[in-house]
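Students often ask why we bother encoding 3D structure as a string. The short answer is that it lets us treat folding as translation between two languages. Here is a chain of 345 residues written in the first language.
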Amino acid sequence: MRVAGGLAIELREAPDVICRQAQALAGPLATLLARLRRYPPDVVMTCARGSSAHAAAFAKHLIERYCGIPVAASAPSVTTIYRRRLRLKGQFFLGVSQSGISDDLVEAATMARTAGALTAALVNDPDSPLASACEFVLPMAAGSEHSIAATKTFVASLAALMRMAALWASDEKMHRSCERLPERVGHAAELDWSAALSPLGGASSLMTLGRGPTFAVAREAALKLKEACTLHAEAFSSAEFRHGPIALASEACPILMFQPNDAAGADMLALAADLGRKGVRIFVAGSPPDHKSEASYLPVLPPEHAEADAICLIQTFYAFLVQLAERRGKDIESPPHLQKVTRTR
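And here it is in the second language, the structure alphabet:
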């Protein structure tokens, strides 16, 4: 798939980032996990904004599925606006941020550490205020990212979180998949999703669906469609989609589905077939079923490990995003009203 511009360069850097990250994370992860094993938390609290919030959703899936620990997303305004300290003694607070400078994340991390939580920051800048506010620093090791649409830092975040989960859960299969991830991410960017260009290029809105490991990917895809293509897109889990949003499904409102390669995949395949029969324009990033389906299937890599496969899906989507922005006449490097670093409180 051909891509051009700064974002394309950063897409090509992603495999090297994941390789470099393995060495950068080895020491910090070993120290952090020694503490987590010595003092196991009952709850993990994540804190993030934008694409990093989607990475935190991936962390929730990983930690709950493989470690059995509940994960909750922090609302920073509880600290920054309402000045409430949470009861976090002995719990694990994980901040995720590309820049590490947003005031609300820094204040939330400071509150958590003061309240007695074990705090860690997954950041691209290990010298950032968020890193300084936390006891442990986990470097993404993505290097400089200039494109406003964060891509390689998001892929780096997911890869780092998968490494953390693999070690925390002592999951050798996941660990081996992490080692193979750089090569697979490189191949993922070359897959051709051009069959969806014309239908999605002319859409005024669409929905993205995922579940399990791909729910975070669906959320990230919807955000990037807004940012890079000024295309209104909303993300749902395929289960939540059935509880109301399915009423919006029509030929005029296409669906981009990210199929997980695990136990959640069968239900999504059934949903895709059902919607296709009803005339909904649906594109599925996943392996097609053996039976005839009205849904359109976009090529993906052969399945290997569900969580690693989800990371590869977002890499393929990013390459497709550039083509879609070009089709819609949008400058992906200068999205309206946006800047590279956003600071909120």
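Translate back mentally: The radius of gyration is 19 Å. Keep this in mind for the problem set.
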